[in-house]
Amino acid sequence: MTITQDVVTIPRKLPEGGKVNLVGLTRDKLRETLIAAGTPEKQAKMRVNQIWQWIYQWGVRDFDAMTNLAKAYRAQLAENFVIEIPELVSKQVSADGTRKYLVRIAGGHEVEVVYIPETDRGTLCVSSQVGCTLTCSFCHTGTQKLVRNLTAGEIVGQIMMARDDLGEWPEPGVGSGEAGPRLLSNVVLMGMGEPLYNFDNVRDAMKIAMDGEGISLSRRRITLSTSGVVPEIAKTAEEIGCLLAISFHATTDEVRDQLVPINKRWNIKTLLDALRAYPKLSNSERITFEYVMLKDVNDTDADARRLVKLIAGIPAKINLIPFNEWPGSPYERSDWSRIEAFADIIYKAGYASPIRTPRGEDIMAACGQLKSATERARKSRAEIAKEAGL
Ligand code: SAH
Ligand code: SF4
Questions:
Q1: Are strands 122-125 and 129-130 parallel, antiparallel or unpaired?
Q2: Beta-strand (E) ranges in 118-237?
Q3: Which positions are catalytic?
Q4: Is 41 helix (H, G, I), strand (E, B) or coil?
């Protein structure tokens, strides 16, 4: 059974007359912004700390509630700034507890955000772009034109929106929120878009989410998934330091060219070379290889054996994703017995090979099914090729 909660009718509050949104500014940028609007330089560091804590630790959006700031200063802040996150348009709750949110960002575009509760964690799947410039042939988002990159505020704002919905902000001035297990304990950049084609905004947003005086997510609880934008992989290790997942999906260049067209620019060998350096650079244990199971395309025993050979020497786990169908999708999901046989070969070679349970299928919230209703236009082949630079 699907429970649908319909349109939330909070009217959108647009930033009034050139007011700057503070959400998404790094500490350094927040400092500069406050100084530019009249905060004395000597006080700036303290003001950053205070405002940061209100916004990111306690989830406050109203300057007037910032009671450790003088009244006149609060008024000055309200004149110049807003604290704004994407607007929640609708929420659907799956029979399995998965929540799919549709949020609206400036310009009226919409992106989807998915919350997946599990016994030991709660994972938020965050989007980084409206649509995607890449055109992986099995992915619903890939059929949607890229509209634009999300700003850092719109990316971290998705986490803040989910914390609002889960009622997870601690009482201002009282707790840090660390009392019990968190409802939103993990973030995966696996929603709409290719995060490494929006690197700076994704980095700033994750830095904010990791900051110990705010949302305070450990870097080991954030996983960035990429289709393989090789030049940005080392930067991800150095500048974000989160866990990495790779949309691998094939064991020969011939098949990967078809499934993940970015492979034509950076092929399997180039990608694997970049990955070999990642664990050391980021000081993280292992890389997740995502592998979508497509019937008669990439799911043979020979594929499984080739996969194991290719990744030899890379600390890895292989996440097998049963293909999630979407209207008009050109592939079928591999049979369960095939997926299990594939997993078994990988497991026997010494790698963890979990099969990802599809979540929220009844509300089209599963991996690769996201595509906002407002952006249904399908790209032409020529557009696809041009955008992907192929
Ligand atoms: N753009 C990034 C992150 C978003 S996709 C990337 O490609 O890695 C998150 C994961 O879902 C990727 O591994 C993607 O390949 C996979 N995926 C996409 N469409 C899918 C589908 N229809 N069924 C199952 N997995 C899919
Ligand atoms: Fe874009 Fe990732 Fe979908 Fe490929 S799988 S089209 S990179 S969102």
A1: unpaired
A2: 122-125, 129-130, 148-149, 186-189, 222-226
A3: 112, 367
A4: helix
Closest ligand (CA of 136): 2
In terms of residues, how long is the chain?
390
Q: Please check whether residue 14 lies inside any domain of the structure.
A: no
pLDDT at 13 over 60: no
Substitution candidate for ligand 2 out of 194, 248, 263 with most atoms within 8 A of CB: 194
Residue 360's pLDDT is what?
81
Return the pLDDT at 39.
96
| 18: its two tokens | 């050139």
Is the Cβ atom of 323 under 6 angstroms away from ligand 1?
yes
Tell me, using a 6 A CB cutoff, whether residue 204 lines ligand 1: no
- Whether 107 is in a domain gets the answer yes
| Residues 44, 107 within the same domain | no
- Give the residue among 380, 390, 374, 389 at the shortest CA–CA distance from 147: 374
Torsion angle defined by CA atoms of residues 170, 171, 172 and 176, in that order, rounded to the nearest 10 degrees:
-40
The CATH number covering residue 50 comes to 1.10.150.530
Residue 283 CA to ligand 1 center (angstroms) comes to 25
Answer yes or no: is pLDDT of 384 > 60: no
**Do residues 341 and 150 lie in contact, with contact meaning Cβ atoms separated by under 8 Å?**
no
To test the ligand 2 pocket, which listed residue (128, 230, 247, 262) has its Cβ within 8 A of the most ligand atoms?
247
User: Does 4 map to a domain?
Assistant: no
Place of tokens 């009034």: 16
pLDDT band at 14 (very low <50, low <70, confident <90, very high): very low
Atom in ligand 1 nearest the alpha carbon of residue 368: 19
